[in-house]
């Protein structure tokens, strides 16, 4: 009975909660937004949804924002159509506000003196050309709010001319835009004429092929308008056609066009998002009771130059240093291009190309022959010989046929050591010496792998620093633009602009230094890999902010989560290093060799060398005195066993015995010292990991906090609440925090490479079976 009551109570609470939520939602004030576009956007159709989503997100819980489907209209790419759409929405009773999302829709709205309801216009072509109304920071025109991004066609043409100088410029635009914006067209022609530039307007002719044919042969550069009426595939063909014609191009729309192959733009990637957010904020202010004409119209998003380096190379345009340094480069020549290179690839190439390792390989191969040479004295020795002899006749006669005057003989000899402790010692010592050579070669290879991995990580580190410095440069440039806006509205003096210009020069220098460091790091990596120092490559892990993509096996992180786990892992790896260290193995091999020499030195006092020997001699020819005697046949042979034991060697045997004992004592001491160094190296490396691994998370949090602080300070600076000093401090704090966050990742990875080197195995980069074995041993050790 009690359980039924509880279920009934839960059901009642759920129903009441849903009802309360629905009532709360129903109680929200409704805002119905109409939208006008110049026509159906074939390119970037998602832009309209960006404006909708920003408003819905900001208004959530405060207003019930709706976009009636029947009130999203387009002008069908005609002036009359645009004005008809505006009239319809201005007079529609089910529309509270209007977003004019189009260059022509915005322009046509500016021409109206009487707006019945608030209209928001984010697409300004050029504030100076269109002579935008402004009064006290707002438009001053009833129900009109626009967003002025301080876009300047003059500046865009000037920037293109700095990148690739020209005297003849063609502007590719839709016929509708050319007809609907006569003021912009006239302004451009006059400005071009004043600057000695011949200007042509090329109407988009429906296809890329036809449009390319209309470009005058004298054209030296292209200004590409938004071309929203152009299908995406045709736009791609148009861009490729401009590249084929070796024409530098500049996009008015922004970054997406540059990614498609247009040479450059000043409009940043975030421009559309910021525009949408600014419109959403102003709409909310009107919904809260503010007047549209009083809301701010200035949007200081800043401009940043972006250059497509692949396009620049294709059309053989190479901008000056200052331009390249300020710009964001797609397919960056400094940050790397060409073949993709992973950390594992870099290490393998370095091992393969290293000259010291090649020499060590030769030494190992040569040492193997020493082993074979020492073994040869323990194997049968066989020899063949021939001899022709002439002796005086009287001696031959006296020999009675045993030694004729003229003889020619052939002989074969054979010998086999039955036991020689000295020979066995030589063979055993050479085998141990070869083991030592192999282990020394292994130690060298581990050093090379560690050096190569560190060099590769240094390339990634330098690239990260360059990216951070470049972003800081862009931010400084944006702040310079913000300061100019503050000066223009009387919120600051000209000294503020000069300060930012000084900061910009300093940031440019820092970017140049960072670029140089990256090039140095890349040349060092190429040297280690045995490649041309200036060869380009693109690290596969570029821009890494997390160690996961660089490490082949992520299970290691489970052992780094707590101080205790790190301590246990440290003990395990120190223990393993004593087993795996090639330096210790090399000394062990040398000690084994010396132990064998000591045993041999003791045995040499009483143990003889025993050898079996035999020979056969055949008489091939004989003549002269004594040759007629037939008492002896032509074949002689002998077999014998010999044993030898040196009784006195002038004290040499005793000296060798004492020397062997001293050498063993020396090697034992050296082994203890090496063991201490090996374990200490592992300990130091793990201590660094102990600090650097948690530092990744801490520095990342610090960077995020500094970035959030910078955003708040920037907004307050734009509103005039905080000073330039506050913004500079916040920017510098964010820069330092971002660099520390990047360094933390690469410090950890470098330390982890050193841990593997000190252990004697790069187990995180071994094959899967070996990695499984390693982690199995770790788990077993932890379980104890």
UniProtKB/TrEMBL annotation:
Q: Where found, per UniProt?
A: Cell outer membrane
User: Where does the UniProt annotation place the signal sequence?
Assistant: 1-26
Query: Which keywords, in A-to-Z order, does the entry hold?
Result: Cell outer membrane, Membrane, Signal, Transmembrane, Transmembrane beta strand, Transport
- Which PANTHER family is this protein grouped with? OUTER MEMBRANE PROTEIN TOLC
A Pfam family this protein belongs to?
OEP
What Gene3D superfamilies would the database entry show? Answer: 3.40.50.2300, Outer membrane efflux proteins (OEP)
Q: Which InterPro entries match?
A: OMP_efflux, TolC-like
The Swiss-Prot or TrEMBL record describes its family as follows: Belongs to the outer membrane factor (OMF) (TC 1.B.17) family.
Task: Provide the protein name.
Answer: Cation efflux system protein
Superkingdom assignment: Bacteria
The record lists the organism as: Desulfoluna limicola
């Amino acid at each position: 009975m009690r359980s039924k009551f509880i279920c009934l109570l839960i059901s009642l609470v759920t129903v009441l909660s849903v009802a309360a939520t629905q009532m709360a939602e129903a109680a929200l004030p409704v805002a119905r937004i109409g939208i006008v576009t110049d026509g159906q956007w074939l390119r970037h159709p998602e832009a309209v949804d960006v404006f909708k989503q920003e408003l819905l997100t900001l208004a959530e819980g405060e207003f019930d924002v709706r976009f009636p489907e029947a009130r999203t209209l387009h002008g069908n790419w005609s002036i009359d159509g645009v004005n008809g759409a505006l009239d319809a929405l201005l007079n529609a009773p089910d529309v509270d506000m209007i977003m004019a999302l189009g260059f022509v829709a915005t322009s046509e709205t500016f021409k109206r003196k009487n707006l019945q309801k608030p209209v928001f216009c984010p697409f300004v072509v050029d504030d100076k050309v269109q002579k935008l109304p402004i009064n006290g920071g707002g438009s001053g025109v009833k129900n009109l709010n626009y967003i002025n991004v301080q876009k300047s066609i003059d500046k865009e043409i000037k920037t293109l001319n700095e990148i690739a100088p020209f005297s003849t410029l063609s502007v590719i635009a839709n016929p509708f835009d050319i007809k609907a914006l006569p003021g912009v067209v006239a302004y451009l022609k006059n400005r071009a004429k004043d600057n000695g530039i011949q200007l042509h307007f090329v109407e988009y002719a429906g296809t890329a092929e036809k449009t390319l044919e209309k470009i005058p042969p004298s054209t030296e550069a292209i200004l590409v308008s938004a071309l929203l009426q152009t299908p995406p595939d045709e736009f791609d063909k148009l861009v490729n056609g401009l590249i084929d014609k070796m024409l530098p191009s500049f996009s008015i729309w922004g970054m997406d066009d540059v990614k498609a192959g247009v040479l450059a733009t000043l409009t940043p990637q975030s421009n559309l998002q910021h525009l949408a957010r600014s419109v959403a904020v102003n709409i909310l202010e009107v919904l809260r009771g503010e007047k549209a004409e009083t809301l701010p119209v200035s949007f200081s998003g800043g401009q940043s130059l972006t250059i497509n380096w692949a396009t620049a190379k294709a059309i053989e345009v190479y901008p000056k240093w200052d331009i390249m340094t300020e710009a964001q480069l797609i397919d960056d020549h400094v940050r790397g291009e060409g073949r993709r290179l992973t950390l594992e690839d870099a290490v393998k190439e370095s091992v393969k190309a290293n000259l010291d390792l090649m020499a060590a390989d030769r030494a190992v191969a040569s040492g193997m022959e020493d082993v074979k040479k020492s073994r040869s004295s323990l194997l049968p020795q066989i020899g063949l010989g021939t001899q022709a002899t002439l002796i005086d006749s009287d001696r031959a006669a006296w020999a009675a046929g045993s030694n004729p005057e003229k003889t020619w003989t052939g002989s074969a000899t054979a010998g086999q050591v039955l036991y020689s402790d000295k020979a066995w010692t030589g063979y055993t010592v050479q085998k141990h010496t070869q083991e030592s050579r192999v282990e020394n070669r292994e130690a060298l290879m581990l050093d090379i792998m560690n050096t190569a991995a560190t060099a590769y990580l240094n390339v990634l580190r330098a690239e990260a620093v360059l990216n951070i410095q470049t972003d800081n440069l862009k931010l400084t440039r944006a702040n310079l633009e913000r300061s100019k806006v503050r000066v223009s509205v009387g919120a600051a003096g000209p000294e503020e602009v000069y300060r930012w210009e000084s900061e910009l020069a300093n940031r440019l220098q820092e970017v140049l230094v960072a670029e140089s460091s990256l090039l140095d790091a890349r040349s060092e990596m190429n040297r280690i890999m045995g490649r041309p120092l200036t060869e380009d490559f693109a690290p596969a892990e570029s821009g890494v902010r997390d160690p996961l993509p660089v490490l082949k096996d992520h299970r290691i992180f489970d052992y780094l989560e707590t101080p205790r786990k790190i301590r246990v892992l440290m003990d395990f790896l120190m223990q393993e290093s004593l087993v795996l260290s090639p330096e210790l193995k090399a000394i062990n091999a040398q000690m084994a060799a010396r132990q064998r020499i000591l045993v041999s030195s003791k045995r040499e006092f009483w143990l003889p060398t025993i050898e079996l020997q035999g020979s056969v001699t055949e008489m091939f020819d004989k003549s002269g005195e004594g040759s007629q005697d037939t008492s002896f046949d032509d074949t002689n042979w002998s077999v014998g066993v010999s044993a030898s034991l040196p009784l006195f060697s002038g004290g040499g045997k005793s000296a060798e015995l004492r020397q062997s004992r001293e050498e063993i004592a020396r090697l034992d001491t050296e082994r203890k010292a090496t063991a201490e160094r090996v374990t200490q190296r592992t300990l130091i490396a793990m201590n660094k990991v102990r600090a650097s691994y948690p530092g990744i998370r801490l520095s990342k949090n610090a960077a995020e906090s500094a970035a959030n602080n910078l955003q708040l300070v920037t907004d307050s600076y734009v509103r005039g609440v905080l000073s330039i000093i506050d913004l500079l401090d916040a920017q510098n704090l964010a820069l330092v925090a971002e660099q520390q966050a990047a360094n933390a990742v690469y410090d950890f990875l470098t330390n982890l490479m050193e841990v593997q080197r000190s252990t004697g195995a790069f187990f995180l980069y071994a094959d899967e079976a070996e990695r499984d074995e390693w982690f199995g041993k770790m788990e077993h050790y932890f379980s104890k």
